[in-house]
From TrEMBL:
Superkingdom field: Eukaryota
Gene Ontology biological process: methionine biosynthetic process
EC number: 1.13.11.54
Protein name in UniProt: acireductone dioxygenase (Fe(2+)-requiring)
Amino acid sequence: MKMFYEEHLHLDDKIRYILDGSGYLDVRDKEDRWIRIFRETGDMISLLVGIYHRFMLDEKNCLKAIRLFVGDPVWTTFNRLADHFEAPGQHLEFLAQTA
């Protein structure tokens, strides 16, 4: 699960349903501050395309989730520190150009 803790974004909407377990989803707000959301069994969350986020397990260290897609599944992630977006918000400009 360490791979999900690295801050990243997707170029498609992210929809997940928690089947079992719990943890914390951190998302960036428009001022680039973290917002922490506790997620547990039965929760569904949808993140719009281009939102930086990360996930970590809680003390139970267990999670079973399903990712739902609209259209063809896309599993590509863009890590914040290693991506090709040089400035905060540049990914939004990229998305606008590709839409």
